[in-house]
């Protein structure tokens, strides 16, 4: 009989002897009657009997399982089929460090931050494997005990899907955030969500936040997310905390303050004593002799592994298998390596004893590059038995080369993923074809795992993993087709920017003129949304070149329309106008009603900016007429689109008619918008309609204006609508100011300013500056007036060195410049000729606009009272006195 056979006989004999002893003992102690005899009279008798039974059984069963454990732990198994432990979750195969790590200082610091009365952004930084996540979870346990009503949301950033602002909004609104409206800024919607939230506490944890930054400079990759973090870090009245758990110090691409607003909680390497204790937890039976080493070797080990938990686990895994190293020789080897090489040396050592199936599992997980369920791994190894693949997964988990999520997904830790990618690349050209084929198969399997009804960017994780697999496989055309599928979802959330790096990578690689044109056009749109207008112009130019090559007139027209929208965004009104005219002419020739409507709206905005009210109204009414054409589509989407445009155009026309003093027309168009809004299933436009009504009340019924504008603010908060919040709070500010309620007016305009884009809605910074002066904050008022002057000047002359960019017909900018000069010169002895000239230019550009003139005179009168010499602005007001006005209020 073989040696292993004799061992089985002896081992079986020991088990039989123990069982015999057990049965003898329990028979003599009347155990059967204890269980099957008369029922006990009291409930506690059951407890006593059951306790006795479990005690009797516990000792021999513990001995048996102890022998089983010793037997499995004592054999250094090298054959792949014998390596796998029994299936277990990642949590049960790894020791729980939370109970043994001395992280009181870091935990206490984080608890202090998360229990402060105002929210912010907290960075928890440390190397991979030092226990950052453990610290955060321990802190959250304590914060939950201290904070009533606390809600905690946890995310893990991945290379394929980065966190976005919409996800933050969903987190804050508990998943009830409505879809974004076209053109809305995500950070502005976040502002609205914070305001609606009030003082309810929320902690949003983002683990692996190093994936949110660009690898080159460690600055946040998403400029919208950068702005959102700044909002959360600087706003005073909210209790939302963002906890970034990261290996790097994240920076702001726009030099914002959020990265340095709070001191980071730095989780350094594990102290020596705790490190040794952790080694003891790993080597519980002392079989490897980790804790019995001399202090000198333990000190060396602590130093070489940098007190890192993950590296300690890899060392432990390496010692469990036959690598040719004992614990002392391995420590000596580590002492010869540069610190940066130690992680990959240990990974390679652990992976060196793997069998072919285990290596293929690593390759499969490298191809997926995102957590996937067991069935996805089985699919890529369908030529091997399921038990064999499961065993391989379990071995890899036990060796710390693979992690298992709480939902049962398998993935490679960051260090292992890097090692695996290098190993695959090192196989040489002959392996390239097989690797591309594996990536292609991985993409096919990921298609089956997609979320069919994504509600947020997190639900697109599998889509992005599939996209990355296709791109790594060099399958550019299928990758582009998937980009378009994803884009259709992201654009509904105004978040197409997530596809920017993928579109850039595919540029000039699609091998098709049409696809190249469509991709460049999309790039132009994305660059314009991020404010990269030079790059946007280049991308649109390339798209036009492709359209000309294809002689695709329809595509060329749409590209010109997109370029017009870009120029409008940067206040280059002349260029925008030229492009809108071209797009309109081409759309009329082609019968493209969609482009025609957009071009007419764009032209209406240009004409109004120039004070050409009749032309503006004419273009807007022509756009409305398109909705009544017989050829206008009757699909649900078309009807919904038509409804939204009818409301928006009617409200815009109502406001323009009101500015001209044509109140009957203003009321007629407002009622058109209100009827259309009431017929809709959603209430997206209710706030805008309420604000339009409040604006009409401003001149004659200020009390009604305050009440209606207040209702508009409440509705806009319910729908997280930043544009309506901007308008309604501005209206409410003016109404409060009309009644002399300065503090309330200042409160509203401060909040309205959060939703304003630089260079737009110049009335808002004008009111901010005036109210700072009313509240005797002269220094702040000076800064705000200077900023208003700068923005107005930039509207008039975007590029002082290039006269072709100038727009000296922008009457609103002339009014804003004049008002800013009045504020800056209020206490000076300098003349006000420049302000008078600017107001005169504005009036010369417009027909009589009594409502606007009345508002300007009212604001100037309020400002004049704030000066050291009352009557200082009388000459300026006399210029406006000659302009038609409904009446003057003070």
Biggest beta sheet attributes:
5 strands, parallel
Helical region count? 40
Q: Strand order across the biggest sheet?
A: 2-3-4-1-5
Low-confidence stretches: 1-100, 885-890
Count every beta strand, where a strand is a DSSP E run of 2 or more residues.
Answer: 7
- Integer-rounded radius of gyration: 35 Å
- Estimate the strand proportion: under 5%
Content-based structural category = mainly alpha
What overall geometry do the principal axes of the alpha carbons give?
globular
Span from first to last CA?
A: 111 Å
What share of residues is helical?
55-70%
Chain-averaged pLDDT = 83
Overall description:
The structure is a single chain. Strand 6 and strand 7 (410-411) form a beta hairpin. This protein starts with a helix and ends in a 9-residue tail after the last helix. The protein is mainly alpha-helical. The protein has a five-stranded parallel β-sheet, with helices on both faces. Strands 6-7 form a two-stranded antiparallel ribbon. The chain contains 40 helices and seven strands.
Write the layout of secondary structure elements.
Elements: H1 3-28, H2 31-36, H3 43-74, H4 90-93, H5 104-114, E1 120-125, H6 132-146, E2 151-156, H7 165-172, H8 186-197, E3 202-207, H9 223-234, E4 240-246, E5 265-266, H10 272-282, H11 295-304, H12 309-320, H13 327-335, H14 342-352, H15 356-368, H16 374-380, H17 386-398, E6 403-404, E7 410-411, H18 414-425, H19 429-449, H20 461-472, H21 476-492, H22 500-506, H23 513-529, H24 533-550, H25 553-569, H26 573-590, H27 593-609, H28 613-626, H29 636-659, H30 663-678, H31 686-697, H32 702-718, H33 722-738, H34 742-752, H35 763-774, H36 778-796, H37 811-824, H38 833-845, H39 850-866, H40 874-881
Helix pairs in contact: 1-3, 5-6, 7-8, 8-9, 10-12, 11-13, 12-14, 15-17, 19-20, 20-21, 22-23, 23-24, 23-25, 24-25, 25-26, 25-27, 26-27, 27-28, 28-29, 29-30, 29-31, 30-31, 31-32, 31-33, 32-33, 33-34, 34-35, 35-36, 35-37, 35-39, 36-37, 37-38, 38-40, 39-40
